[in-house]
């Protein structure tokens, strides 16, 4: 402070104005720097982030649309006029997928998070596998041998199986209302095991129709043998059934008998 007092008025004025100008310049530089930073964020948001999100949504939509077209083809492929609609829908979906993926790969050049780039590389690999898998499904879905089997599955076997499982489920739910003891716990387990083996058996039938792999046919035979044993065990426990369970058991027995010939 003593040094400042020793300065002349002119020097003090120059010093004061210098400080003001210095502060002004420093403030201007800081504001300019922040504006540049904000401008950079804005540019990334408008030119990278937002378009990336849009491309991601388009990619997701395309994937779902391709699956929808494939499902439609699997169910209605036996009708040529409708099959063309679903095949075209899947082709258009893949055009959208390819376009969206191309955009994302382009935008990724400006991404700043390495993990996101790694995830995109994984998506690129999975999309190739996904495309191949869909084409394989379309190719095997409606051969001459598979058309009657799919029709039988969707129109007869699957609806019958659904009613069969529903009867078992109703018995299980009713069992929850009964007083618990050792015998009833055994009955409860038997009902649950029977439902599981039956449902898994149906899953193996579907897998066999889609792939033709003999292991699924063998899997069904193993599960059905187990279900037969479980059925006979439950039959011996009929005395424990409530009146409601008795009715559902009759339905289950009848539906189960209807179901097996469809499988054969």
Please explain how this structure is put together.
The protein is mainly alpha-helical. It folds into 2 domains: 11-141, Four Helix Bundle (Hemerythrin (Met), subunit A); 146-263, de novo design (two linked rop proteins) (Up-down Bundle), CATH 1.20.1440. Helix content is 88%, strand content 0%. The radius of gyration is 35 Å and the shape is elongated. It starts with a helix and ends with a helix.
Notable traits:
single chain, 264 residues, mainly alpha, Four Helix Bundle (Hemerythrin (Met), subunit A), de novo design (two linked rop proteins), 8 helices, 88% helix, elongated
By CATH reckoning, the class of the largest domain would read Mainly Alpha
**General shape:** elongated
Percentage of residues in DSSP E strands:
under 5%
- The name of the CATH architecture of the largest domain is Up-down Bundle
Structural class category:
mainly alpha
Number of domains: 2
CATH fold-type name of the largest domain = Four Helix Bundle (Hemerythrin (Met), subunit A)
Helix content: over 70%
What oligomeric state best describes the polypeptide chains here? single chain
Please provide the ordered H/E string of secondary-structure elements. Answer: HHHHHHHH
Instruction: Enumerate how many helices there are, as a single number.
Output: 8
């Amino acid at each position: 402070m003593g040094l400042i007092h020793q300065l002349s008025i002119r020097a003090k004025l120059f010093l004061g104005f210098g400080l003001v100008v210095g502060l002004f310049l420093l403030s201007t530089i800081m504001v300019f720097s922040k504006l540049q930073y904000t401008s950079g964020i804005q540019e990334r948001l408008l030119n990278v982030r937002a378009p990336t999100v849009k491309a991601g949504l388009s990619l997701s939509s395309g994937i779902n649309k391709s699956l929808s077209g494939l499902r439609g083809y699997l169910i209605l492929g036996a009708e040529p006029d409708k099959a063309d609609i679903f095949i075209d829908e899947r082709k258009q979906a893949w055009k959208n997928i390819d376009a969206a993926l191309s955009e994302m790969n382009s935008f990724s050049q400006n991404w700043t998070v390495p993990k996101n780039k790694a995830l995109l590389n994984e998506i690129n690999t999975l999309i190739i596998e996904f495309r191949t898998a869909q084409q394989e499904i379309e190719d095997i879905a409606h051969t001459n041998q598979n058309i009657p089997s799919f029709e039988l599955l969707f129109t007869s076997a699957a609806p019958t199986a659904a009613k069969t499982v529903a009867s078992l489920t109703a018995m299980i739910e009713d069992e929850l209302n009964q007083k618990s003891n050792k015998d009833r716990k055994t009955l409860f387990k038997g009902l649950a095991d029977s439902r599981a083996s039956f449902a898994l058996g149906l899953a193996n039938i579907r897998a066999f129709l889609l792939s033709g792999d003999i292991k699924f046919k063998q899997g069904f035979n193993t599960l059905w043998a187990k279900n037969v044993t479980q059925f006979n065990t439950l039959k011996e426990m009929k005395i424990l059934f409530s009146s409601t369970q008795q009715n559902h058991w009759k339905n289950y027995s009848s539906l189960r008998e209807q179901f097996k010939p469809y499988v054969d």
